[in-house]
Amino acid sequence: MKGFxxxxxxxxxxxxxxxxxxxxxxxxxxxxxGARHSVLQMGYLIDFEVEQDKANFLPRIRxxxxxxxxxxxxxxxxxxxxxxxxxxxxxxRDVEEIDSFYFxxxxxxxxxxxKQSPKRVIVEKxxxxxxxxxxxxxxxxxxxxxxxxxxxxxLIKGFLPAHPDCAHSSTLNKKELEYLFNSGETLYLxxxxxxxxxxxxxxxxxx
Length: 207
Prior knowledge:
The protein contains seven helices and eight strands, in the order βββββααααββαβαα. The longest helix is centred in the middle third of the chain and has 15 residues. The mean pLDDT is 92. Helix content is 33%, strand content 23%. By secondary structure, the protein is of the alpha+beta class. Strands 3-2-1-4-5 form a five-stranded antiparallel sheet. α3 runs antiparallel to α4 and α4 crosses α7. It folds into two domains: 69 residues, CATH 2.40.50.140; 131 residues, de novo design (two linked rop proteins) (Up-down Bundle), CATH 1.20.1440. The chain is elongated, with a radius of gyration of 19 Å.
Protein backbone atom coordinates (compact mmCIF):
# COMPACT_ATOMS: atom_id res chain seq x y z
CA MET A 1 0.00 0.00 0.00
CA LYS A 2 1.04 3.59 -0.52
CA GLY A 3 -0.01 6.89 1.03
CA PHE A 4 0.83 10.26 2.54
CA UNK A 5 1.07 10.61 6.30
CA UNK A 6 -1.50 13.18 7.42
CA UNK A 7 -1.02 12.96 11.17
CA UNK A 8 1.01 11.22 13.87
CA UNK A 9 -0.51 10.77 17.33
CA UNK A 10 1.83 9.59 20.05
CA UNK A 11 0.29 7.11 22.46
CA UNK A 12 1.85 5.06 25.25
CA UNK A 13 5.65 5.08 25.37
CA UNK A 14 6.81 5.69 21.79
CA UNK A 15 3.93 4.00 19.95
CA UNK A 16 2.05 5.96 17.30
CA UNK A 17 -1.33 6.13 15.63
CA UNK A 18 -0.59 6.98 12.01
CA UNK A 19 -3.22 8.57 9.76
CA UNK A 20 -2.51 7.95 6.08
CA UNK A 21 -4.18 9.30 2.96
CA UNK A 22 -4.05 6.41 0.53
CA UNK A 23 -5.19 6.03 -3.05
CA UNK A 24 -8.75 5.15 -2.05
CA UNK A 25 -9.02 5.53 1.71
CA UNK A 26 -8.04 7.37 4.86
CA UNK A 27 -6.38 4.72 7.01
CA UNK A 28 -5.62 4.87 10.71
CA UNK A 29 -2.99 2.39 11.88
CA UNK A 30 -1.09 1.46 15.01
CA UNK A 31 2.70 1.52 14.88
CA UNK A 32 4.66 -0.16 17.65
CA UNK A 33 7.90 1.46 18.64
CA GLY A 34 11.13 -0.37 17.85
CA ALA A 35 14.80 0.44 17.44
CA ARG A 36 14.79 -0.66 13.81
CA HIS A 37 11.71 1.36 12.83
CA SER A 38 12.22 4.13 10.29
CA VAL A 39 11.61 7.72 11.37
CA LEU A 40 8.18 9.00 10.32
CA GLN A 41 7.13 12.59 9.68
CA MET A 42 3.87 14.21 8.67
CA GLY A 43 3.73 14.57 4.90
CA TYR A 44 5.99 11.62 4.07
CA LEU A 45 4.97 9.43 1.14
CA ILE A 46 5.37 5.83 2.27
CA ASP A 47 4.93 2.27 1.08
CA PHE A 48 3.71 -0.03 3.84
CA GLU A 49 1.97 -3.23 4.79
CA VAL A 50 -1.00 -3.64 7.10
CA GLU A 51 -1.41 -6.43 9.61
CA GLN A 52 -4.72 -6.96 11.36
CA ASP A 53 -4.25 -7.96 14.98
CA LYS A 54 -7.40 -9.02 16.86
CA ALA A 55 -5.81 -7.93 20.12
CA ASN A 56 -5.62 -4.30 18.96
CA PHE A 57 -8.36 -1.84 18.06
CA LEU A 58 -6.44 -0.69 14.97
CA PRO A 59 -4.55 -2.64 12.30
CA ARG A 60 -0.77 -2.49 12.59
CA ILE A 61 1.36 -0.67 10.03
CA ARG A 62 4.66 -2.37 9.19
CA UNK A 63 7.41 -2.74 6.56
CA UNK A 64 7.45 1.01 5.99
CA UNK A 65 9.52 2.46 3.13
CA UNK A 66 9.85 6.21 2.71
CA UNK A 67 9.82 7.82 -0.76
CA UNK A 68 12.17 10.80 -0.65
CA UNK A 69 11.90 14.09 -2.53
CA UNK A 70 14.90 16.40 -2.98
CA UNK A 71 13.02 19.37 -1.56
CA UNK A 72 12.66 17.62 1.81
CA UNK A 73 16.12 19.00 2.61
CA UNK A 74 14.98 22.57 1.91
CA UNK A 75 13.71 23.94 5.22
CA UNK A 76 11.29 26.51 3.75
CA UNK A 77 9.80 24.09 1.22
CA UNK A 78 9.38 21.42 3.92
CA UNK A 79 7.70 23.93 6.23
CA UNK A 80 5.12 24.82 3.58
CA UNK A 81 4.59 21.12 2.78
CA UNK A 82 3.82 20.41 6.43
CA UNK A 83 1.38 23.32 6.53
CA UNK A 84 -0.30 22.16 3.31
CA UNK A 85 -0.61 18.56 4.47
CA UNK A 86 -2.10 19.75 7.77
CA UNK A 87 -5.31 20.98 6.09
CA UNK A 88 -6.31 17.47 4.97
CA UNK A 89 -6.67 15.59 8.26
CA UNK A 90 -9.48 17.80 9.63
CA UNK A 91 -11.18 17.66 6.23
CA UNK A 92 -11.27 13.84 6.34
CA ARG A 93 -11.61 13.33 10.09
CA ASP A 94 -14.77 11.21 9.88
CA VAL A 95 -14.08 9.74 6.44
CA GLU A 96 -12.73 6.32 5.49
CA GLU A 97 -13.25 5.92 1.75
CA ILE A 98 -12.11 8.62 -0.69
CA ASP A 99 -11.59 9.02 -4.41
CA SER A 100 -8.10 8.63 -5.88
CA PHE A 101 -8.31 12.34 -6.82
CA TYR A 102 -6.84 13.40 -3.48
CA PHE A 103 -3.87 11.02 -3.54
CA UNK A 104 -3.08 12.00 -7.13
CA UNK A 105 -3.38 15.68 -6.25
CA UNK A 106 -0.84 15.36 -3.44
CA UNK A 107 1.47 13.26 -5.58
CA UNK A 108 1.38 15.85 -8.37
CA UNK A 109 1.95 18.66 -5.85
CA UNK A 110 4.95 16.82 -4.37
CA UNK A 111 6.47 16.46 -7.85
CA UNK A 112 6.00 20.17 -8.61
CA UNK A 113 7.29 21.29 -5.20
CA UNK A 114 10.94 21.12 -6.30
CA LYS A 115 10.84 23.43 -9.34
CA GLN A 116 7.80 25.59 -8.70
CA SER A 117 6.87 28.03 -5.95
CA PRO A 118 5.20 26.02 -3.14
CA LYS A 119 2.85 28.95 -2.50
CA ARG A 120 1.61 28.89 -6.09
CA VAL A 121 1.25 25.11 -6.03
CA ILE A 122 -0.80 25.36 -2.82
CA VAL A 123 -3.15 27.97 -4.30
CA GLU A 124 -3.63 26.01 -7.54
CA LYS A 125 -4.24 22.71 -5.75
CA UNK A 126 -6.67 24.40 -3.36
CA UNK A 127 -8.66 25.63 -6.36
CA UNK A 128 -8.57 22.10 -7.82
CA UNK A 129 -10.06 20.71 -4.60
CA UNK A 130 -12.80 23.35 -4.45
CA UNK A 131 -13.74 22.66 -8.08
CA UNK A 132 -13.74 18.90 -7.55
CA UNK A 133 -15.94 19.23 -4.48
CA UNK A 134 -18.23 21.78 -6.13
CA UNK A 135 -17.37 24.45 -3.59
CA UNK A 136 -16.26 27.38 -5.76
CA UNK A 137 -18.35 30.53 -5.37
CA UNK A 138 -19.41 33.33 -7.67
CA UNK A 139 -17.17 36.31 -7.02
CA UNK A 140 -19.94 38.86 -7.60
CA UNK A 141 -21.65 38.48 -4.22
CA UNK A 142 -20.37 38.94 -0.67
CA UNK A 143 -21.03 35.87 1.50
CA UNK A 144 -21.15 38.05 4.62
CA UNK A 145 -23.56 40.88 3.77
CA UNK A 146 -25.16 39.39 0.64
CA UNK A 147 -24.59 42.52 -1.45
CA UNK A 148 -22.88 42.67 -4.82
CA UNK A 149 -19.12 42.95 -5.26
CA UNK A 150 -17.87 45.26 -7.98
CA UNK A 151 -14.13 45.93 -7.82
CA UNK A 152 -12.87 45.68 -4.24
CA UNK A 153 -12.87 42.06 -3.09
CA UNK A 154 -11.41 39.87 -0.37
CA LEU A 155 -11.49 36.14 0.20
CA ILE A 156 -12.07 34.42 3.52
CA LYS A 157 -11.50 30.79 4.58
CA GLY A 158 -12.45 28.36 1.83
CA PHE A 159 -11.87 31.12 -0.76
CA LEU A 160 -15.31 32.59 -0.08
CA PRO A 161 -15.76 36.11 -1.59
CA ALA A 162 -16.46 39.12 0.59
CA HIS A 163 -16.11 42.88 0.70
CA PRO A 164 -12.80 43.95 2.30
CA ASP A 165 -14.75 45.96 4.90
CA CYS A 166 -16.93 42.94 5.73
CA ALA A 167 -14.02 40.51 5.93
CA HIS A 168 -11.56 42.94 7.54
CA SER A 169 -9.03 41.41 5.20
CA SER A 170 -6.65 42.30 2.38
CA THR A 171 -8.05 43.68 -0.87
CA LEU A 172 -7.36 41.50 -3.91
CA ASN A 173 -7.52 42.08 -7.65
CA LYS A 174 -10.89 40.76 -8.83
CA LYS A 175 -9.71 40.15 -12.40
CA GLU A 176 -6.79 38.09 -11.10
CA LEU A 177 -9.18 36.03 -8.99
CA GLU A 178 -11.56 35.48 -11.90
CA TYR A 179 -8.63 34.22 -13.97
CA LEU A 180 -7.53 31.93 -11.13
CA PHE A 181 -11.03 30.51 -10.56
CA ASN A 182 -11.59 29.93 -14.29
CA SER A 183 -8.18 28.55 -15.26
CA GLY A 184 -6.91 27.10 -11.98
CA GLU A 185 -3.54 28.75 -12.66
CA THR A 186 -1.59 31.46 -10.82
CA LEU A 187 0.48 32.41 -13.87
CA TYR A 188 -0.81 35.98 -14.08
CA LEU A 189 -1.20 36.57 -10.36
CA UNK A 190 1.23 38.88 -8.59
CA UNK A 191 3.48 37.48 -5.88
CA UNK A 192 1.66 39.67 -3.37
CA UNK A 193 -1.72 38.15 -4.31
CA UNK A 194 -0.28 34.63 -4.15
CA UNK A 195 1.11 35.33 -0.66
CA UNK A 196 -2.34 36.39 0.57
CA UNK A 197 -4.16 33.50 -1.15
CA UNK A 198 -1.68 30.95 0.15
CA UNK A 199 -2.25 32.01 3.75
CA UNK A 200 -6.03 31.83 3.25
CA UNK A 201 -5.74 28.35 1.75
CA UNK A 202 -3.63 27.18 4.67
CA UNK A 203 -6.43 28.10 7.07
CA UNK A 204 -8.12 24.93 5.82
CA UNK A 205 -10.99 23.57 3.80
CA UNK A 206 -13.64 23.49 6.50
CA UNK A 207 -15.76 26.64 6.67
